[in-house]
Design goal:
The protein has about 375 residues and is an alpha/beta fold. The chain is about 50% helix and about 10% strand. Strands 1-8-2-7-6-3 form a six-stranded parallel beta sheet, with helices on one face. The chain has a two-stranded antiparallel ribbon with strand order 4-5. The longest helix has 19 residues.
Length: about 375
């Protein structure tokens, strides 16, 4: 260690870093189930709403394996361990039905809210993590299931109980910090409303903000921004901005909500982006203000993969390159980086292939090679 080495006492990880660690661990277990008792379980700590459980569920869905979310703070010990029964003077323990029985099955067990669980339930969780067994029973977790726990920190003003040192010592610990760039990539892939992704690009510090917020009501977090995206689709159709304003304030609070509503009003100006993507004769018009550019870029990313076929995708990719040629390097590279994430219909691999196989890619790469390399370097 040299004199300039900085030690992160919280061992913080961005969302992308957490995903890489978890995915590598789970894939290793799936390939080698015999490692079930030697691979360390993972403990994710972080503020409420940063997306800890979403990260884990998305990985399970992507790998096509099982996912069981055990909310420990909502359970009693009996809900976790089961109930006894007597058969021929012998007591047997009947574990709950949600625990996997198939010895060949594979998946992830998420022990969520573990830092809010009562002490007796933490003890029960300890045996599952340590021995992969349920207390007092003959039940053993199949080898193909990986254990992850998640919880809030003492500093998060949430209900948190101290984790015993014995339980803590069984985990590999990471503190998940919200990262606007990582979240935007996730948001584009999950079809989050472009007003939301554009606003977070414009005001990244408001992705997750607990300071000076009424934490007993709505406040901005990755979780609440996803909900904002969902309600925009419903209440925009009604055409009543005052009702939409109240709904948004109810999710992220009035302080941030008033900024977002103004941004959303700006974003709705760009109704011709789809024409720019699909019609080569449509004039490319780029806004000049910073907030409008963010809204415009978000609209491009949102609409790019929202066609119905690969033919639509290829047409829109060429339209994207026409738009990129009119943009500055920073916004052009930002759009391409997000576009490479794909969405719920187009996989990341398919998106990258479509973008790089376009006849326009070589010209773009030549023009923006330096900016693209710098962007990738900064994101590492």
């Amino acid at each position: 260690m040299n004199d300039t080495t900085k030690i992160d006492l919280h061992n913080t990880a961005s969302s992308d870093e957490a995903i890489a660690i978890i995915e590598t661990s789970v894939k290793t277990l799936i390939a080698n189930p015999s490692l079930a008792h030697s691979l360390p379980a993972i403990m994710l700590r972080g503020a409420p709403g940063v997306g800890k459980s979403t990260i884990v569920k998305d990985i399970a869905d992507r790998l096509g394996i099982g996912f069981i979310d055990v909310r420990l703070a909502q359970l009693e010990r009996v809900d976790f361990c089961g109930l006894p029964s007597v058969d021929d003077h012998v007591t047997e323990w009947n574990v709950p039905a949600f625990w996997p029985r198939d010895k060949k099955s594979k998946g992830i067990i998420l022990l969520d809210e573990i830092t809010s669980a009562p002490a007796d339930l933490q003890v029960a969780a300890y045996q599952l993590v340590l021995d992969r067994r349920i207390s007092n029973s003959n039940y053993e977790l199949p080898d193909g299931w990986y254990i992850i726990a998640a919880g809030n920190r003492v500093t998060d003003r949430a209900v948190v109980k101290t984790m015993s040192s014995a339980l803590a010592n069984r985990f590999m610990h990471f503190e998940v910090e919200p990262n606007a760039e990582d979240w935007r990539g996730w948001a584009v892939k999950h079809d989050i409303n472009p007003s939301v992704t554009g606003f977070i690009q414009f005001r990244p510090g408001l992705l997750h903000k607990m300071d000076n917020q009424n934490l007993e009501q709505g406040w901005p977090s990755p979780r609440s921004w996803e909900k904002v995206s969902n309600v925009l689709a419903m209440f925009d159709r009604e055409g009543n901005e005052e009702i939409l304003r109240k709904v948004v304030y109810g999710l992220i609070g009035p302080n941030v909500g008033v900024e977002f509503i103004e941004f959303h009003r700006t974003a709705k100006k760009f109704g011709n982006v789809l024409d720019m993507l699909t019609n080569p004769k449509t004039k490319i018009e780029i806004p000049t203000k910073s907030d409008e550019k963010c809204a415009f870029a978000a609209a491009v990313n949102y609409l790019l993969w929202n066609g119905k076929s690969e033919k639509d995708d290829k047409v829109r990719v060429e339209g994207m390159y026409r738009i990129l040629n009119a943009l500055t390097a920073d916004f052009a590279v930002m759009i391409v980086k997000c576009a490479m994430q794909g969405n719920t219909r187009v996989s990341k691999l398919q998106a990258i292939k479509l973008i790089m196989s376009s006849p326009s890619y070589k010209e773009f790469a030549k023009k923006h090679a330096k900016a693209f390399a710098e962007k990738l370097s900064l994101d590492k």
